[in-house]
Amino acid sequence: MNQIANSFLSSISDILFYPVLIALLLSLVWIVYQTGVSLREAWQRSRNQFLWAEEKLNALEKKASTAKEKDIELEKIIQTSEKQAASRLNQTRFSIRSGPTLGLMGTLIPMAEALLGLSKGNLPALASNSSTAFSTTVLGLAIGLIAYTLTVVRERWIRSDLQTITFRAEELLRNIK
Known about the structure:
177 residues; 0% strand; elongated
């Protein structure tokens, strides 16, 4: 019975190996793209261009001058901004956990084959599978680290932007009353 269970579990992990590698490579492409997006935003911010916040501030100004129930409309813009900010952060937050998880899966699956090769004295299989295993670990950890760094930086930017938007909405409401 133990042999059947081991064979069944081994088959499942073998089936998962290529999807894990594909997901890991797609995560790498995604995090490289997100790094580019963040670098572009950092460059814009260094030139005092806060495009996302400016768009929200313009919407506040427009609603404050045209809406009948200004306080409700301004609050709606603030809440929408907070929701969009959370969505922007979630673009990298998922990779903080998924990168290392996929890396670990990509490590453990070939390590089973490496250990099997070792037990049979097949050193080339041991070396090949060990190399794959450790490479996926490094890649998964790198994805997680980059995603964490991007998320921390984006959180700081977003907190600052949301604070600016909220303060401006309060100023506009104070001027109305």
